[in-house]
Amino acid sequence: MGMPSKHINSTAYVDGGSYLGIVAEFEEPKLAIATDDWRGGGMLGPVKLDMGLEAMDATLTMGGHTAALIRKFGTTAVDGVSLRLVSAYRADDGSAATSVNIFINGRFSEIDLGKSKAGDATEHKYTVPLSYYRREVNGVVDIRIDMVNGVFEVDGVDRYAEIMAILTS
Q: Where do the domains of the chain lie, and which CATH numbers do they carry?
């Protein structure tokens, strides 16, 4: 009998600084292949052609006021902010906990400072369009996407290497 592996706890690092106890929530980017419909002569219907990857966005929600992060807004570098989310997952079947590390680079495109009311908790939400994304589970890279350098690696196979070899030869 299997048991689901549940998210137990996490923390975040932004440009190397720890936000342990401050990070409230992290939303990983949606991974999607960009497609275009193609229906050529004689085809019964359209098929979706692979046109690369869709843009990726992640969101980070912090509890309270985070001045150091607000001061990163407006960086001109597409990879100007480095974030790392460390999570622990565990199934209630006696198996060992699983380590999941998410590494992303991007910049804050939007900061939602939310509402502030005396005596109430506050949260700041940061939207990060990504130029780089890497997901590791127990130290093994599952997915690595480097939009700028043309890397699209899944389970150790760079699915874009053939194209980059053509472009760089």
A: 5-140 (2.40.30.200)
User: Helix and strand tally (H, E) in the chain?
Assistant: 2, 13
Per-residue model confidence as pLDDT tens digits over 126-152: 999 999 999 999 999 999 999 999 999
Closest CA to 26 of 62, 55, 72, 54: 62
Round to whole Å and give the CA distance between 35 and 50: 5
The band of 116, judged by pLDDT with boundaries at 50, 70 and 90, is confident
